[in-house]
Records
---
Amino acid sequence: MIRRWPYVALTAVVAVAVAIWAIPELDQRAFFGYVPTNATPTMLPSLSLDTRVLPDSAKVMLLAAGVTLLVQVYSTAYMGKDRRYRSYALLIVLFLVAMIAVVATDNLFVLLIGWEVMGVCSYLLIGHWWEQPQSRAGAMKALVVTRFGDLGLLVAIVVIGQTYGTYSITGAWVGAADQGQQHGTAIGLLVLLAVVGKSAQVPLQTWLPDAMPGPTPITALIHAATMVAAGVYVFARLLPLYGNDTTVMTALAVVSGVTMLLAALFALVQHDLKRALAWSTVSQLAYMFAAIAAGAADVGISHLVSHGAYKALLFLGCGVVMHAVGTSALSAMGGLRTTLPATFWTMTIGFAALAGIIPTVGFFTKDRVLESIHVATHGETPLPGGVAWALLVVAYVTVFVTAAYAMRLWMLTFLGLPSKQHVEPPSMTWPLVALGVACLALSIGEPLDLDTAALSTLVALAGIAFAWWRQDADLPGPVQRPLAAELGLDHPITRLIPAGTIGVARVADAADREGIDVYPRGGAVLAGLVSSAVRALQTGRVQVYASVIAVGAFVVVLVGVIAR
């Protein structure tokens, strides 16, 4: 156990360095390194260490560093005697560094590298317990689905470079400001494809819940501070290149509206705490995208930071519960309020923040999202008024469903008859306390619209009352069954797409074996023949060697004479 703390110390050093770097930028708009003030034409990709840290960037960096440090502390107890702890801990540090690269860089290709490194780290960490088939399957699904979306980011970067003559984010901003948002629809839709995959939005949403077999601290890290949060941040970071495009904003609004409600409904019917929280993440990410679609990117980032605090708390709390009862199944829980008191109180704060109950930070940032969508209904943003109204209605319905499933999960986990006594390791509970305090402290200074707050509170209280009335009963069968099956949305990814592409894969395999592989195989055969001929000459008889040398010398002399 003692040997694990050096990894915590390493993470702490990175976190402190990030804090020293980021905190001064929370209240000012400053630059680090060389940042071009205009677009410099170039036709070739370039890599540079230019960085630009703005207030929103600083917030996301501090969130990532803080949650990563708490996850490392938590893991010293949670991972027990895991024999691969060293690689696990170092991958977490690499994950953090990649996230910082994505958030801080001013170079599009450095952003892409950090983006891809996070994907590889998530694959390795989700599949940390690779002996389990579920872990292998979840890791591979996450890798394949997110890689498909990543093609959008790669193509978008190429289009940006060819359009504005630079691969600097700042340079592209300047180009868009001077020349207008050229090819905004194409760039925006390509970036949208990338973030839909990374942030698990419809129709690429199924990989995130299926990543639950990975270690719970990693689940907290991915869901709260890295990976999925990167999708929201990148879309907001590149917004000046397509933010005025009605097609892109409408597409984003449709994706976020469908995702937030569907994922909330899926969370409502889950019988596994960890999977329910995963669907909750998908839904809350859609809230952030909804704010961006409404023209309030800063509000979306604020909800990202808020969500990072309370979702990390809930997942790490789920890990304590699993450590105590041995499973994440809700049927094995109940009555834990007396046997896990620290977990009970901190997770109560987390569930309240998820449901949007005052005075938690989730209440304030959720209301700011709702208010930003309401403002968009006035028709003063690229989002059409009718779309904005539909998105606002869906958002309020999602508030009801979110409060209902948060209350249901809280009741099934902690209420009921007292269970047997359990142990709460200090290194697992102190991170919960820190995050619980953050869920309350982050609300300080948050603005509040009274009309929106009153309406959203009434809707949330109605959802809580609904969950209390239903207790642990399932929804009516015609509703429960399709929702429990998640509407079969995973079927195209797991069944239809593989079945449809297996023929293409076989043709490609045959072409590889019978076409491309002919050349290396032929080269190997030729090398074998040459070596056999050379070996035949190696008789070990000096007389033969002398004869060959003599004949060779004679041939050389003869050729020289003839040539003259």
---
Amino acid sequence: MIYKIGVDVGGTFTDVCMFNQITGDIKTHKLPSTPWDPSEAIGDGISQIMSMNNVLPDEMAYLAHGTTVATNATLERKGCKTGIITSKGFRDLIELARQTRASLYDVQVDKPRPIIFRRFRKEIDERIMYDGSVLKAIDRKEVEKVVDELKDEGVESYAVCLMHAYKNPAHEKIVEEIIKERHPEAYVSISSDVLPEYREYERMTTTSLNSYIGPIVGKYANLFKQRVREMGMSVTPYINQSNGGLMSIETTFEKPIRTALSGPAAGVSGAAYITKIAGIKDIITFDMGGTSTDVCLIQNNSPKLTTSKAIAEFPVRVPMTDVTAVGAGGGSIAWIDNGGMLKVGPESAGASPGPVSYGKGGTLPTVTDANVVLHRLNPKHILGGRMKIDEEAACKAIEENIAKPMGISTIEAARGIITIVNSNMARAIRVVSVERGYDPREFTLVAFGGAGALHAAKVGKDLGIKKVMVPSNPGILCAVGLLVSDIRSDYVKTNIADFNKENINLMNECFQSLVDEGNAWLDAEKISESQRVIIKHADMRYFGQNFELSINVDYDKIDENNIEEIKSLFHKEHKREYGYCREGARIQIVNFRTIALGKVSTVKFEEKPDGGEDASGAVIEERDVYFEEANGYVPTKIYNRDALKANNTFMGPAVIEQMDATIVIPPGHRVTIDKCHNVMISYEKDI
């Protein structure tokens, strides 16, 4: 078995990357997504890239896939009919939520519609206390009655979330057992398995969402597995998680909520991998696709993780790559609001009908159409000539929908669209950097996705970022990320205690129980000892605080020699996050976390031959391209990226074209091709 394949499904295109483990050769393929059935484009893409390169199914050693099924099912409220079983008095917790709200001063804003209606939420009269002791025993007959009622209502899935089950899961286990006895075909999630940590609201929403999407994701994963088998492959496919790791199809059935932000996480993993090879430690990823732009900050080659994300306005407390998304992509639609102001997004033309210039029935102007009008994007064809572009249709759409109503020229309208979408994306980068205590000027902006390289240099300049990197295959970097991601599972245990010498044994016992869980999972995944890594984190806070900071515990065991070092790390992180620290103050540990990793074989990128500074041999044509810096169209050299060689260098204005992306180099920017064929763009001067 020779080949590894990664497949990423986006809102507009599906990307496929195939790696030859013997030669190091990488092949890429891109085709339109099929929103009505994502697996259709996946199967077609795999078949096509194998056929194009004469690869047989039995030569496939590895297959990984990033999915949006969980996210879409939640956002579109298309999950299955789900029932909640909870402790007496907590039936309405999922609607009561928290005091915090998205629109603080809007008294008329509607709360998100609950994913589980009230008649499907049932209470049982039991209670476990905060310390795990049983205050009131569970009544099996009462549980049986509740399960029968929900079954008669047509419930397909159950979410069991009892008070303090993270401390003592006994009652939840009994409820799960009864459900499986009386409704064996139903899907069941219990909070002590999905999220064994305190804060009952987040535990309930996470468990409920896991059950809500469970059958949907399970059905999709089964179809994906079946399609792989029908293609003649014997490999067991992996699914990407929101934390950037991979998990088997079987684990996906049990914990589908872990795939909630599967796609964006793969791109972050890919960016972290290629920048480490290039010797760059601190980056901000800039993944602009057809529907949205995702950004993430990576420091010391380690992506930031969070457990405070929300999907469809419901908090999901599972570890996720800390990606901030904004509705700004190549397919984002430009429109005029009631006040006559030009807006871009968040609505997208998607894969169908797509931008007007794609000629697939789209009628509303998009960011892609503006780039075509300004000749930043090839006005004749893209995807290496496989897709024709209709420049005239793009001009007409912008003129009729934007330019005429606003009383401006088509060129001004197109320029306005680009300016607004750039501003929206720059705002997202400030969220992950400036608003969290980081100076973006100290980072390299890494642009990928189908449209990232079109906008990165200008967005970087607006933020004061002087270095931009465009990987060798920017349009399919998410698919590359799937080839380099490790197999991963996260574990958590709540046990609130003072972080001091008296509790060292308690803390080590808590960590060891999670390490044992991780090793048991790695055993089931058939990961050898040499490929295993266990990482430990502690969620810590000052006594009296309501939220915690996650601190890496890079020791086999906590002891009297290193406990002060861990405290010092907490103080330092607290000062960076909040601007102050209280050395000597009482510190608590709240959650113990471990990450179990199964390391995958790496993808080695071939170094390109040194071609010297002269890049003239890669010039394929010249066309007039609009640049804001020049306030008009200027003659611009168009380069074929495949013809560029290591150490080639040239100044903008320029455009670099390749099958999966287009790179725009504004005036005043210098391009250098590094040894791994990354395009390094540095801002040098104004013109």
---
Amino acid sequence: METKHNQMIMLRGRRLSMAAAGGALVVMGMGQNVLAQSSDPVVRLDAITVEGNRYYEMPSSEETGGYGIDSATVGTKTPATLRDNPQSVSVVTRDAIDDQSLVTLDQLGRHTPGMRVLSNDNGRSSIYARGYEYDEYSIDGLPAPMSSISGSVPSLPAYDRVEIMRGPSGLFNNTSEMGGVVNLVRKRPTDEFQAHVQGNLGTEYQRGAQLDVAGPMNEDGSIRGRVVADHSEHARFVDYNDNKQDDIYAALDIDLGESTTLGLGFLHNSKDIVVNNGQPTDSDGKLLYGSRSDFYGARWNNFDSSSNDWIAELTHSFAGGGVGQLAARYSDREADYNYAFGGSALDSNQELAVAAIGSDIDQEALSVDASYSKPFELFDNVNEFVIGTNFKRYDTDNKSGSVRGLGGSTVTLDELNNLSFVDVLDEAIAGMSGYRYSDTKSSLEETGLYAKLTLRPIQSLALIAGSRASRYKVEETNRVSGESQDRSDTAFIPYAGLVLDFGRDHSLYASYSQVLKPQTSTNADGELLEAREGDQYEFGIKGSYFDGDLNARASAFRLYDENRAATPDIPGANYSVAVGKMRIQGAELEVSGSLTENWDLIAGYTYLDTEVEQASTTRDDGIFLLMPRNQLKVWSQYGFGYGLLHGLRLGGGVTAMSSFSSSSGVEAPGYAVVDAMIGYDFNKNLSAQLNLNNVFDRKYYNRVGGVNTFNMVGAPANAVASLRYDF
């Protein structure tokens, strides 16, 4: 049987032959890695002739197999090796996603070094890095908003890999959060026919099915297509909680000529969830550690959403190695929810108050990007420049109603579960007593010009400089009061970095990056506040081993966040001032990739230290209390390639973190959870896998909130089995 790692080796051979036939050496990123014109390992050479840049067409991780991938596009616009990127970047490959049986991006975040997930229902969680939430995600470099409240956290079946950058990165997208960039790289149509079907079945009512078909659609292969359909039902160990998601993905790649390709993509996601908002605390503000199945909500709780993404990209390769691309993504999302949850801590009679919320959200997003990149020879080394322009506009309509004291003063758990149905939004619109109603329209628009230059004055040193000139406008309209505010500004965003090679396998790096985050809070004159400013300084060492199959990083960083909205210490003040300031610093260690043809590894440790230099709001500053100081995440799998155990795959890992708390004073101890996997490849077509989660049935909370809600219990021991057939 041909293992995934054998397929990877065969692919490398095809890439090398292709480069040799063209009579050109392939370069990428900062021009360090060169594919030699032989079967020798990839090395870093002293002199290079630039004739082409086929490395921009980096292979998919499903082609190469394993966890080892040495390049990414996140934060660079064109592919660069992880070692050559002077920031912290992780890449989670298709095999790593499948081995851990991950379906949504927040599930992936719980297992990825450096990321922290404030759990809710899968597909509705908040994902953080370095203390800040990822409020956007990109598809092939094109951003759109992401938030837990709207359920816009994406599912993963349509994607080949997930690229994650930590820390501010405003060069290609200025108006975003400080946490960094998440880029999802689509599965693409293939030159040859391939297909698989898969079914999943597990404890806690887990089940799912998937179909993935790709290949040429005409005789000469100039038109290629792919279709992915997936249905997933997540574990529901909490009473009445339910979570169903459906995904459809279709793509076409059309060769308009030898050097020009048009790519088209469509993605649809829908969610149907009986919302679980977590548990209250006891009357002393302590976590309950009672039954993990207790559902502190009404049985009619519901969340429905539907999202569509249309993507088009036109790519042309110019003579001399230049690559130009024009790409656009349009997204529309609809979400409505209506649910009741705990409105207080449990009292001495084990009763609590009830709160409820209902909302209707409509969102549209458009992003367009045009860029040109080219390697060039200078100082007897390969250098590179990227220039481009992009535009994005986000429009969000949000009608929301809320109420406290629903169903009387206090109720028992059973009475809460069986609460009479209430349409909270309709009651709020009707002006019912005790209900609050809001109707807002917000928009963000940004246009920018960017440029990045990588110079190699000597072969072992890369100097990187970039800048962005950006114009943004943010508008906020309160349709209830009729008030509207807007703010626009022009910003210049610098970027700088360097990478210094020493020896064959290691590089020292340092970088400075910046980003802005527009705010919707208003000052005493009713005007929107100036944007928050984020600056990050980072340095470290990176290693690349086994021809890029295994990558390692040790990094340290310091991040400043200024102009955060704060309420002044004045009695009766109902406005904000931009004075909040945070300092976040820490260190990360990460190793990921393939140690051998059969052994894969993802391992990382994160240390985070936060300091409120000048307080903003209790809620915003309180987010940092939820970030554990220490996190450790490890996952590894080994596949037996020969002998009596040929075809057997074994995997396992641990997710551990130190204690954390909330601004409400709810504290949770640290925990460690162990997962495991066993798989077997019966032949080249048929394989089976069993994932065991929380093997030792550890009781823990993975998130805490107020005394009334958002104290989320970790899932108990559970298992899910999958059977896959490849055609």
---
Amino acid sequence: MTDPLKILHDVFGFSTFRDGQEDIVRSVLAGHDVLAVMPTGAGKSLCYQLPTLVREGLTLVVSPLIALMRDQVAALRHFGVEAGSLNSANDPDENRRVADAVRDGRMRLLYASPERLANSNATEWLARSGVSLLAIDEAHCVSQWGHDFRPEYALLGDVRRRLGGVQTIALTATADVSTRGDIMHRLFETEPRIFIHGFDRPNLRLAMQSKDQSKRQLFAFLDKHRRESGIIYCASRNATEKLADSLCQAGYRAMPYHAGMAQADRAKNQDIFLQEDGVVMVATVAFGMGIDKPDVRFVAHAALPKSIEAYYQEIGRAGRDGEAADTLTLYGLDDMRLRRSQIEDSDASEEQKRVERQRLNALVALCEAPRCRRQTLLAYFGETTEPCGNCDLCIDGVVLFDGTIEAQKLLSAIVRTGERFGTEHIISILMGEETDAILRLGHNGLKTFGVGKDRSKTEWRSLLRQIYALGLIALELSEYGRWTITERGVAVLKGLEPVELRADVLMKPRERKSRRGVMAAESVVPGDDPLLLALKTLRTRLAKEEAVPAYVIFSDRSLVDMAVKRPKSAGAFGEIHGVGQAKLDRYADAFLTVVREHAD
């Protein structure tokens, strides 16, 4: 075996591991199966790429998208690593190169889609080729509880067995307790080593606003991010086209992306976004998975995402380089109605629809949270944190009122019905509605029956979401969406702790106070620094010449490091972040020339 730290520096150009990587790498090298949950941008790929280079054997990587395979293979080959993929976009020469490298034992990492691996011939060939590690990216797709369940991913447990029970590492950024349990059940015969390295992305500023002239709100946000790369998500294809046109007229370099576009047009726009700086991609959710561009400085949602997991994954495409990045989500009642109708009109099973309803409710609770958004978001994934100071609620504050009585009414109704019911049944009790279920169960005789007639159903739903965001109640997602009371909720019910709730989300939109303010990402080098701009221009030219994303040449962090250190020799260039031996040999002369031209 070779020293992992030496390979980390010599191949990838990194002097140290990122937080959480080393424990996972060491566990894989020790021969353990692994399930790793790490936030987007934490460097999950390195957790299987590095062990592959430390020891002998072929690593088979399951990846959901051809574009993602293409970019990762290109990045590895730029690091001097033999890598390839099995996909329908390969030309005959590439297929021949891959087959020869696998046969000769030179191939180190081979990427394939789950659909390709479902073919028994392909799996048998790979089993004969000596696969020593199976790496499953986006592993939440395995689970029916995951927000992006894919039936073909559910077959991977069988693929693993056909490969001889090969050592496996499954990686994801979004997996709650139910999803993690399902992944383990479907993929592993025995419990793997589990690494949960947190869901927090402290470099992301979180902000949400109820819609009030949404186009104006978006433009106010974007005005802080001119000449920066970012993504705006829209709910429909038509909306992406219209907004991209409006942005172009306002002087932004914006382009649309959605599934209704011709494949060639989508590919062209995606390549421009990946290779050039200062591009705004206006897209539906068809764009994003596998987009590993590290210098995305903002992500905005022009409409409510479909779930809290989708929101987390989509904002996670900003700031993957660890630098400050900005997010904004706009939401309105129309968005909520649209998302609910999409769930009800889908072909999913009733069980899956129930899960999706609860996920949407959790997202709306985040929108209406009365405390730090990061606290509410992380609580959904089972984590606790102090107020972050980097979200709109921490920075701007909200209009609050003493909601102790309202909270106690909700908590009492939940307790008196045995903590066995969901939102609508609890609210019907408070409203005094004699539904069939309430009459059959005798809940019209409870002390809390009818005590909430002073408020509307819409207000009670908001109040319930708020006490959920505060951690007074918990949602049992895998048990029919029933509400249970937490220890803190018990304290509130007994009158031992007061509760403050948001008044503004109970008001009509025009009554709300408008609270704005966004924070642009800052760097140690100004964005208009002449050397940094020249380095980016060179990177763009090389990326176009080699037909790869710009980050495959060098990340923004590497360029900033060059602009700060201004290396004068190949040896000094080799100490720049992200410069391994292969990139030193390939690019040192070109980038050193630019640095020398700006020596003064």
